[in-house]
C-alpha cells in the first residue's frame, strides 16, 4: 500500500495533476487527495486550479462539471461507472416538457444531474447553496426543482414557497435515512447534535418534530457537517449521510464523538473509486471526461450561476 501511495504522489507531481476528492471517498483515497470537499467546494476548486490534469475522485457528474469549467484541461475519472441514481431519474426532454406547463417557471437543478439536464436549466445548485438560490428567485415565479424530491421538499419547507414544484427523483442511499431512522438514532444518542443531509427522506419530518423529541437538528451539506464538527472543537454528533464522511471528520477532529444515523448508508458508486484505479488513471491517462463544446457552452451558464452563490 505504501508503495502505491508513493507512486501516486510521484505521478501526480510528474504529470502536474491534482486529485479532487469528495467527502464520501474511501480513507486511502482521501489520504492522497489535494483537496477534499462537497460538490460546491469541489466545483470552485476545479474552477480555480492551475494544474494541467484533474483526477476526479467522486462520481461522474462531478467530473463532468469540472470538465465544463476547464475546457483546456484534461479531466480524468478513474471509473466511468461511478454514476448516481439521481442523475438517472430525469432527462433533458422531461424538463423541456415540464416547462411547457409552467411557462413562467424557473428550473433549479441539483448538481446531481446529467450535463444535458444542466444545459436546459436556469440554475444549477448544490446542497450548500440551494436555499440561497431559491430565495433569490422572485416569489411570484414558480420554481421547478429537479431531480431530488427530498432536497426539493426541504427547500419548499424552509422557504414556505407553495409554488415550488418537485421532481420525483431520489438518492438510493439517503432515501433509507427516514424519519424513523433519524428519530431512533437521536433517542439512542441523547444530547448529540443531529447533522442531517437534505437528501435524506426524513429531513422535513425530523425538523417538524425536533422540539417535541428534544433533539437539536442541523441540516447541512457534507462540507457544512465537517465545519460544524470542527467549530464544536470535539462535540457529539449523529451524522445522517453517507458514512464515508466520518473518516474525514475524525481525521480532522479526532476528539469528536461521531455516530452514523445508518451504518449501511454506503454509496456503491462513490466506492468504485479505489487507490489502484487512481494510480492507473494517472499512469495511463484514463478515463478522459469530455463534454462537446456546444453542450458545455449551454450548461456553463447555469453552472456559473451556481458558483456565484457561496
Ligand atoms: P454534498 O457533498 O454536496 O453535500 O452532496 C452529497 C452528494 O450527494 C454527493 O453525491
Ligand atoms: Fe448519488 Fe446518492 Fe451516491 Fe451521492 S450518495 S452519488 S446522491 S447515489
Would you report the number of β strands?
Answer: 12
The strand line-up of the biggest sheet is: 2-1-3-4
Total tally of structural domains: 3
CATH superfamily of the largest domain: NadA-like
Largest sheet: 4 strands, parallel
What does this entry look like structurally?
With 310 residues, this protein is an alpha/beta fold. It folds into 3 domains: 2-81 and 270-295, Rossmann fold; 87-166, Rossmann fold, CATH 3.40.50; 174-260, NadA-like (Rossmann fold), CATH 3.40.50.10800. 45% of the residues lie in helices and 16% in strands. It has helices spanning 2-15, 27-32, 39-48, 60-69, 92-101, 115-119, 130-135, 149-159, 179-188, 203-213, 222-232, 244-252, 275-284, 293-307, and strands at residues 17-22, 35-37, 53-57, 74-76, 106-110, 123-125, 143-146, 164-166, 193-196, 216-219, 236-240, 257-260. The strands form 3 sheets. It has a 4-stranded parallel β-sheet with strand order 2-1-3-4, sandwiched between helices. Helix 4 links the parallel strand 3 (53-57) and strand 4. It is globular, with a radius of gyration of 19 Å. The two termini are 37 Å apart. The mean pLDDT is 98. Bound molecules: 1,3-dihydroxyacetonephosphate and iron/sulfur cluster (SF4). 1,3-dihydroxyacetonephosphate (13P) is lined by residues 23, 38-39, 59, 112, 126-127, 199, 221-222.
